[in-house]
């Protein structure tokens, strides 16, 4: 039986309103990074990047509606893990949480690795490991001191990002208009390419979905959000829609300015486009913006993985003494944030391609589970005093689940193999802690 003072420490502090939650979600998505991955996505989708982002948005929007419903019904931290455990059972909840850890654990590492790669390009005399360690130390310190401080810091970073995105879009449009001359811009060209097979665009959409990952991550901040039953559903949907609009517009205007997929280096295609539309001065501003975007995204990503680990530790699925710890002064899951920082050090031995290859596996699996949770709640009628209709409770989540499974199947073989290996390891661990599934995973009352 727990002592009263221990129970008192197990509550996170509610300080976040709708604007702060929106900023965290958008910072996690890092809208400016749409340009950092543009070349790879354009080649994978055979020059239909804008359409790929739009198709991904359709799947994400339906899933966001499901997340919003569940965040309202279960206003606690934990995201897809918590929702699946409460809607189905502890075993499935654990496996969804394990799959989600694949996404959450490695995403901060990838963010820090990409940021370090950009800085190494600009300052080749400084070793990459110094940039990686600097990112980890700074973001860890901000997240341990408190989510409220990190939220205020994100305001400045997001303003800078949005200004650079707006300038990039305007310069692309001006360049395309000047290049087209009197004949005018072919407005439909980025979306309408009859010679491109739909499978190629879907392969691009599976990559494009990586950019949307922040919309679901904010559900882990539910216990730190003021009036979460109203705030969280709105925030989740708005983050998906706002982010999607930015991604589609950015890809669309970039395709207008630079049609085709011929780049000197696909990994840095946006730099080539930036120099083409704005010269050397704009390239410098653009690079600075990318670094700020990575830093803001790293703060939000690390905050989310810390809170997912906290939810699993609190339920004793992971050792509670370590993962369920809340710092007595800062009221943050300090140990979990530190663990995420230590995991980020793996970036010292990996490259971007390897570390990003299987992130989306866990994300799509979690998205599918969330949609199925809403379907189950609708079919069982266990939705309390919040009425769920057939459209919002059955049709929309089924569309979302099918779309997420389609995106999952569109991942490359390496991502699928690595994802399955991670899943099997989790299944073996679950088998061990439940004594061959003879007992449910441990949990505590919330």
From TrEMBL:
GO terms for cellular component: plasma membrane. The chain crosses the membrane at residues 21-38, 50-71, 92-114, 126-146, 153-176, 196-215, 235-253, 285-312, 333-352, 358-379, 388-409, 415-433. Keywords: Membrane, Transmembrane, Transmembrane helix. It is found in: Membrane. InterPro entries: AA-permease/SLC12A_dom (IPR004841), APC_superfamily (IPR050367). Residues 33-370 form the Amino acid permease/ SLC12A domain. GO terms for molecular function: transmembrane transporter activity. Pfam families: AA_permease. It is a multi-pass membrane protein. Gene3D superfamilies: Amino acid/polyamine transporter I. This is Amino acid permease. The lineage of its organism: Bacteria, Pseudomonadati, Pseudomonadota, Betaproteobacteria, Burkholderiales.
């Amino acid at each position: 039986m727990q002592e009263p003072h221990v129970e008192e420490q197990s509550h996170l502090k509610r300080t976040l309103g709708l604007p702060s939650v929106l900023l965290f979600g958008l910072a996690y998505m890092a809208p400016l990074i749409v340009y950092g991955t543009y070349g790879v996505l354009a080649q994978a989708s055979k020059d239909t990047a804008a359409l790929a982002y739009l198709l991904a948005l359709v799947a994400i929007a339906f899933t966001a509606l499901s997340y919003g419903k569940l965040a309202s019904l279960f206003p606690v931290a934990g995201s897809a893990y918590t929702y699946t455990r409460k809607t189905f059972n502890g075993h499935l909840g654990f496996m969804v949480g394990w799959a989600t850890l694949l996404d959450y654990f490695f995403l901060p590492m990838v963010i820090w690795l990409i940021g370090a790669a950009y800085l190494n390009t600009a300052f080749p005399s400084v070793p990459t490991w110094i940039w990686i360690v600097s990112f980890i130390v700074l973001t860890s310190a901000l997240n341990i001191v408190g989510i409220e401080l990190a939220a205020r810091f994100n305001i400045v970073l997001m303003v800078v990002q949005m200004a650079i995105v707006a300038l990039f879009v305007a310069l692309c449009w001006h360049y395309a208009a000047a290049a087209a001359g009197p004949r005018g811009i072919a407005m439909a060209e980025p979306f309408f390419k009859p010679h491109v097979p739909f499978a190629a665009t879907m392969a691009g959409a599976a990559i494009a979905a990586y950019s949307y990952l922040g919309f679901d991550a904010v559900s882990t901040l539910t216990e730190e959000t003021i009036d979460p039953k109203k705030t969280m559903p709105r925030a989740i949907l708005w983050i998906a829609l706002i982010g999607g609009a930015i991604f589609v517009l950015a890809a669309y205007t970039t395709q207008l300015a630079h049609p085709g997929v011929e780049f000197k280096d696909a990994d840095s295609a946006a730099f080539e486009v930036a120099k083409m539309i704005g010269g050397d001065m704009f390239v410098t501003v653009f690079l600075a913006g990318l670094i700020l975007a990575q830093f803001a995204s790293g703060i939000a990503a690390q905050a989310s993985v810390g809170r997912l680990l906290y939810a699993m530790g609190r339920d004793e699925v992971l050792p509670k003494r370590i993962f369920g710890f809340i710092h007595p002064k800062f009221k943050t899951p300090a140990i979990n944030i530190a663990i995420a920082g230590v995991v980020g050090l793996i970036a010292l031995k990996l490259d971007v391609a390897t570390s990003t290859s299987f992130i989306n596996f866990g994300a799509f699996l979690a998205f599918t589970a969330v949609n199925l949770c809403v379907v189950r709640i609708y079919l069982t009628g266990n939705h309390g005093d919040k009425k769920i209709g057939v459209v919002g409770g059955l049709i929309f989540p089924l569309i979302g689940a099918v779309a997420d499974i389609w995106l999952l199947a569109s991942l490359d073989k390496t991502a699928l193999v690595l994802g399955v290996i991670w899943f099997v390891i989790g299944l073996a661990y679950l088998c061990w802690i439940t004594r061959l599934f003879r007992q449910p995973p441990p949990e505590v009352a919330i």
